[in-house]
Every structure is written in C-alpha cells, then in structure tokens.
Fold these 2 entries.
Entry 1:
Amino acid sequence: MPEQTPLTATPGQTVGPFYGYALPYAKDRELVPPGSERAVQLTGVVYDGAGEPVPDAILEIWQPDETGTVSRATGSLLRDGFTFTGFGRAACDPEGRFSFSTVEPGPTEEGRAAFISVVVFARGLLNRLFTRVYLPEDTEAHANDPLLSSLDPAEAARLIAVREADGSLRFDIRLQGEDETPFLRLPGHSD
C-alpha cells in the first residue's frame, strides 16, 4: 500500500457578503409596528476591528415580550402587525447602522435581568457571533445576572444599552478591538 500524504485542513468559508440581499424580507426588523403604543426602537452601528462601520452585516434578535413570555407563535416571516413572535432580522445600511422596532423585554425569571439575544453575521466571520442587549434601568437585576456578574465591570457595561432622549435603545456592536462587544459561546457552537 502506498504511503499516504497527510491532508491539511482547508479554511472554512466566511459568512457573507451575500446575506445583505438574500436574507432580508418585508418587515423583518418590525417585531411590532413602528410607532405603535408598545414599540421601542433598538438602534446601533456594527463596527469592525479598525473602528469602521460594517455595511453588510445582518443581525437577528430573539426576545421575550414585555411580560417575559417567550413566544411560540409562528409568523416571523409574514408579519401581520398583531402577533409578537420575538424574532427579527435587520441588514445594516452602508454606514453600518441597524434598527429594530420591538418591545422592551420582561425578565423570563423573577429577579433576573431582561435581555435581547443578538446574533451577528458579517463578512470575515467564520461563525456567527452571539451577544446580549440588557436594559439600562435594570441595575439591581444586573448585579444578579450570571453573565453580567461573570464579566469585569467594563465588559459588562458594553452589554447594556444606552437609553436615548427619545426613549429608544442604542447598542453599538464592536467586532474586535479595545472596546470589543463581549460575545458568547453557546453549546454546540464551534470556534
């Protein structure tokens, strides 16, 4: 039998840039209709390691409703303007900005901090990235949150949204660098 040459692994494909035009759908960023009584805007910018906006990133959010109930309703891809499914998707614009019309989540457990789960897809990433957005007013619950309390204070602060004067939530995402957003490794998520 001839000697076999060892094979080397080839690099994985990176995410995108096709996501910017292949995944968006009508009202994908509208978990609730903009301007409705319960709506709050979640906005921000995705930055790369050099501090430049990422124009072709896509974000997905998953969250409970105001009472902390995780929706089991279908209809995320066909919005009816009434059913809250807890899922949204937004493509960044050429300046790296994103925006969602959603509700402020309630805590899923008594005494826990409410948060919105965020998934980031972007060119140059070998895998999607997972993070969270916490509400700025939940300071007491932040101290009891297992994730936030496991981070140093500067890292934890980067997971807390900023409340703007108009009531919206601002949450910028930095993929690398000095103020990198803390990202999570979930079970089954490889490097």
Entry 2:
Amino acid sequence: MSIGLALCVGLPALAQDEEADNVTAAYEENGRYFTEDDIPTFNVAEDGTVDWLTFSGFRRYHAECHVCHGPDGEGSSYAPALKNSAVDMDYYDFVDVVVNGRQNVNASSNQVMPSFGDNPNVMCYLDDIYVYLKAHGTGAIGRGRPAQKEAKSDTIQEDENACMGS
C-alpha cells in the first residue's frame, strides 16, 4: 500500500461531495497529508498506525484544548464538542476561530472562546490539532491515544523548531 494514499480505516462511507474532499488524502509531503485542495488531513494505515500530525494533535489537543472542550473533542458542560468541527467547518474558518477567538452571547448562551493567536503551544501545532479532530470526527480513529504512529519527519521537526524559536 502506498503511504501517500489515505487509508481511512473505519471511516464512514462518504458521498462524492465537499465532505469527502475535506477528508480524503490526495498526496503526502514530508510526513504531512493533504486533500486535493491542499487542506491538511490525516492518514490511518490498515493496522491503525496514524500519521505523525494526528498523533501529535492528540497530545496537543489534550494539553491545550480538552480542559474546556472535553477529552477527545467530545464536548463538556463548559464548551461544545469539537470533534466534528474539523470535518464540518472550513479549514480557514477553523483557523480563524482558534487564532481570533469567538463569542456567542445571547439570552440563552454565554460561550466565549479565547484567542490563541499568541500561544505558540497552540499555533505551532494548529494543523496537528485540526488533523487529529478531523480523524476522530470522521470515526477514522476512536477515543484515546493512538497506539501506533509514523515517525516524525525531519521537515516536521525543523518546522516545529523554527516555530518554537529553537
């Protein structure tokens, strides 16, 4: 099997529509997977091995996001579930919400998502978090830490070092 093709084990059948294009990996570049529209996505091999970004996204999500949004993006009484946001929401809208925050305040709701645009622990791993949520939101991976992962590519390590200033 080609490592450049996504093998979305457990992925629900998708019609040939925008959602499928938002999920299916069309190519791989230095350990990162992308849709045909150049949107980051995940790769899960038949044996359950996830790409590095999905694994890293699990770790980063649980370090920065799960306090409000619940374990595995399942939501909480404090903030909504995010596991479907990476599937249902446009990638650039997702990035905008994380970078700039969002307020939904009305008579029955008072939800405020803070801005994380200045937080390198989120911004340096934003695609990782997005890819992890997308993989979980589609059902390609279940709850909990992925058991097996691809190795981190040199390019991903270099990008991380540059972003974190090391």
